[in-house]
Design brief:
Layout: E1 6-17, E2 20-32, E3 37-41, H1 48-55, E4 63-68, E5 71-72, H2 78-88, E6 89-92, H3 104-114, H4 119-132, H5 148-160, E7 166-170, H6 178-194, E8 198-202, H7 206-209, E9 214-219, E10 222-223
Parallel strand pairs: 3-8, 3-9, 6-7, 7-8
Antiparallel strand pairs: 1-2, 1-4, 4-5, 9-10
Bound molecules: adenosine-5'-triphosphate.
Residues 15, 17, 22, 24, 42, 44-50 line the site of adenosine-5'-triphosphate.
GO biological process, one term: protein localization to outer membrane
GO cellular component, one term: membrane protein complex
Family: Belongs to the ABC transporter superfamily. Macrolide exporter (TC 3.A.1.122) family.
Length: 224
């Protein structure tokens, strides 16, 4: 059997605020298998974003073990973490974080070039993804010329461009009205499933959570 995509063991994180220590994560254990789509629920401030930042290897300060595709990322140096991130992960946030001076297509091409994909292959992939998301007519638009739903679709295409083993999504449709959020989320899930990626999706939305394969909840620093 192949390695789990992620294995977290006793993941913990404290923050210090005004001399007081807040234990946000107090020993999180989680294993995600290839192709599994997991909803991460929890009240505001429970540590969902903190947990995604740990798995995304975006911040230090954590204790415990983070394994990505069989590699112990907790021991990796900064350069190794960057490589692990590029080769394994895709990110979608509540706000699109697209590069404002680049077109929709360029925003989806760039992460592929960073991984060494040829420009022509990257263009084919960008058009395939943007086409599947109904944006074939928006390739040359810049983010500011797109609607909120279109911007999030481009962000989804960018996250999936390199067929990451794991997509980390933090309230990916939290900034959209309900109807658009439902549509974009369905498209996101369809594409993630279609390419066999796994996903860990932080959300407040129980309705969206119910569409995923498994739901985990953060409560008092642990998963229940
Ligand atoms: N850099 C930081 N310094 C100090 N405290 C922090 C820092 N980052 C997060 N926290 C605290 O950690 C707790 C968890 O924050 P986090 O953003 O992970 O929660 P969340 O579950 O994602 O919340 P939300 O649903 O509102 O986005 C909060 O109490 C927050 O104030």
């Amino acid at each position: 059997m192949s390695n789990p995509v992620v294995r977290l063991t006793s993941l913990a994180r404290n923050f210090e605020q005004g001399g007081e220590v807040i234990e946000v994560l107090r020993g999180v254990d989680l294993t995600i298998q290839p192709g599994e789509i997991v909803a991460l629920l929890g009240p505001s401030g429970s540590g969902k974003s903190t947990m995604l930042q740990a798995v995304g290897l975006l911040e230090g300060g954590f204790s415990g073990r983070i394994e990505l595709a069989g590699t112990d990322a907790s021991k990796a140096n900064a350069a190794e973490r960057t490589t692990l991130r590029r080769e394994n992960l895709g990110f979608v946030y509540q706000f699109h974080h697209l590069l404002p001076d680049f077109s929709a297509e360029e925003n989806v091409i760039l992460p592929q070039l960073l991984l060494g994909v040829s420009r022509s292959d990257a263009e084919v992939r960008a058009r395939e993804l943007l086409g599947a998301l109904g944006l074939a007519h928006r390739l040359t638009h810049r983010p500011s010329q797109l609607s909120g739903g279109e911007q999030q679709r481009v962000a989804v295409a960018r996250a999936l461009a390199n067929k990451p083993r794991l997509v980390l999504a933090d309230e990916p449709t939290g900034n959209l009205d309900e109807v658009t959020a439902d549509k974009v989320f369905a498209e996101f899930l369809g594409l993630v499933r279609g390419q066999g990626s796994s996903a860990l999706v932080a959300t407040h939305n129980e309705r969206l959570a119910a569409r995923m394969d498994r739901v985990v909840r953060l409560s008092e620093g642990r998963l229940i």
